Amino acid sequence: MADSVLSSLSPSEYSTVQSKQRAESALPEYFSAALNTNVTISRDFEAFLILAPSELKTTALDWIKKAVDINQNNKLRDDLIKITISQELANAKLKIDEFDKQLQNFQEFRQNFQTNTTFSSVPEVQLFLSDLQSVIDALALGRDRAFFDQTISVVMDRNQSLVGVSDAQIEELQSWTSVISPYLSEG
Fold first, then answer.
1. In this predicted structure, what is the pLDDT of residue 2?
2. Domain boundary among 15, 36, 70
3. How far is CA 91 from CA 104, 111, 151, in A?
4. Residue 169 placed within a domain
């Protein structure tokens, strides 16, 4: 037990706390997400709950409810974003594969066209290949864009997993309701 807070109370506050303290075995518990177990509140926190105005405790309970609601809305949004990112990543991979096939086929064609003809030195042959290359450059740009989309999707997926609140953290937050509620009429 920490004496620092209790010893700093006025005689009137100390008397109030002493008269309203619960037995050690009756102290409320909150769920600790870090420890994954229930933890009994300290006597100092109990003193705070006894002395705090009811309005403050009611507001705290309201904020717990709001935070849980906000988290639920964010969780739905985050789940949709995760699905979207996953689909964008899959689409980008498919595009890259398709562009790679087309580019590889063109490379093979160009090699064959230039080496399998005795007319490869004819200017029109080079002009023809150059004209084809301009179209293929657009494919290469499309592949680069798909690769960029893939990279962005991977980064977004990693970032998305860093945001949000775990179920254990929400359980901890909600458990504070059972800690604060018994002390609402006091203070």
1. 45
2. 70
3. 20, 30, 12
4. no
